[in-house]
Design goal:
With 141 residues, the protein is α+β, with helices and mostly antiparallel strands. It contains three helices and four strands. α1 runs antiparallel to α3.
Length: 141
Amino acid sequence: MSLAGAIKASASALDAERSRLEVAVSNIANAESTRGPNGLPYRRRDVVLSPQTMEAFNAALGEAGAIGVQVNNIVEDQSAFRKRYEPSHPDADKEGFVSVPNVDVPEEMVDMIGAARAYQANITAINVIRDTVQRSLELGK
């Protein structure tokens, strides 16, 4: 594996983790949104990651397979909305229940912490590679 390939792999992971953080923040921000543009409560979103495309894979074979990751899709969680009894709410049904988003804020916080730690791990990996290259250059002096 070349150092450039390792940096590219870590850089792609930084991009993916940034997307995970953005989606988790959006989920938390909309945890109480009972009516969106479509008239329904907000649906929790999740990031789907995949290896980089086959073209990237074939190009990376010369670099011992360090290909990285990419955001494949951002999908909506199709689990049922939660119900909360609140008869005075404008979105309450005939029985007084309001459909609220299927967002679990503590779960989103755990996802954010995991994404932040993965982001930090990839920054550390890039810094180790940079330091290795810098030390190698100093040895050559």
